[in-house]
Write the structure tokens for this entry.
Amino acid sequence: MASSAPLSAARRYSRRAGRRPGRADGSAATPGGGPGVRRSASSRAGPGGGRARAQGKAERARCRKQTPYPAPTSRSAEAAPRRPLLKFSRKRTARASSGTCVPPDVTSATRRPRAACASAQPRSVALATLERPRRCELCGAAARLRCGRCRLTHYCDADHQKADWVSIHEKICQLLVPVRTSLPFLIPEEERKHGVEQLVKRQKYIIDLTYSTAQKFLWDGKHEKAMPAALHALRFSTEVYGSSSVQLVPAYLLLAEACIGVGHHLQASKYLSQAQWIVLRTPDCSTAVQHRLHRSLGLLCAAEGNFEQALYHLANDIYLASSTFGLKSIETSGGCFHMANVFFRQNKMDIADSLYAEVTDIWHAFLTKSVQTQEQIHKSRAEKSPFTEDKEISEDNMTEAQQAEAIQVLNAVLDIREQAPKQQPGETARVLHALAMLYYLVMDLSKAYEMGTKAFDLLKQLPQQESLEAIGRLLKLINSKPFYTK
Ligand SMILES: [Zn+2]
Ligand SMILES: [Zn+2]
């Protein structure tokens, strides 16, 4: 009896909407239906639907040839004449005129029908799916396209579908199917509980994936590509943890940094205000979160040319990061790097110089340790069982985001060192050595060799040659790789 109320509610909903519950798209546009859902009689195409369906098929086939993502399926092409979009929000108009993807307003990005996510308790899966309006995944405008692969994700236009696909949807398209498909109504309580647990696990996996993807795009300097991934990180974090949880802060910071990268400072400050508000309301907020917030605030102030305020936030970032991770940690080096950039822009070259040297030292030490560990693993491979080796490798490997950060930071420092009016060959050689180790670890051996030989040649001309031996050893290692060809 307990399940009869939601069931009748679902029937009422399906009668009202002219479709069966659980179907992601109520239109008659696409043949078939959502996973495991049949189309209702009322949703089939009317007279002339066959010809329109054939045209739609041909159009989709053409799209498949031209685009790297699955062909969109139109929701309204067959059953009714194509309607214009219901409304263009200010954000969409701005995007169209600037040619860039502007993220939606904070509230609209996370808006769920009837303020769903106030508590950390996950909502009823079936209701969550039933109530979801067909809105564009990126901007929240009325949708008229949907992903032809998962058939559960909607877009206002092809531009937004493509932007989402290249950013994150390609990775999560199939992961969304179990997350966005309703559980059957008539199942035992135990099974429902298990289903909800599985759902939360999957959502958390998607949060990790979207977060790390967005973070990597940011370190690669691809800010626009990072936005859809960061939006998904925020959306799923909101669904799992609620709208005022401190777990949302990392996603807000990603969005803010992406906005700063594409010059949308106002939008960035809105995201940062949200993050700040959450941090202020969380008395036991960790310093790890606070240092990231100060870094993002510092980056925004620096982008706006407010250098004094930027230095204030970056000093806080360095203080909090060093008290949590240590003064010589790579978490702290990030703040030093951004602070050096501010001093560089202020033309205070002495301070900038010493900070760049500090950043190089931290990465140099970190990479030296990583290369040594890698070598120990290779040496012990013959003696140990494969199981212990795997454990060691996974513990010591750099994360993808760390690799991207190191590549961005060290190349930026190298550029500055090489273009400086007053050359410091010792410092330049140190950056080159760090880069050679980094490229060796990520198995880009030709670049590793190039950087290593440059560092070696520079150091040969100097009186102090203590690093020469280490670089020579690294070059030997690179040459020893069987698949390396110069
Ligand atoms: Zn859109
Ligand atoms: Zn999809």
Notes: Residues 4-30+69-285 form one domain. The first helix runs from residue 4 to 17. The chain is about 65% helix and 0% strand. Residues 179 and 198 are 9 Å apart (CA to CA).
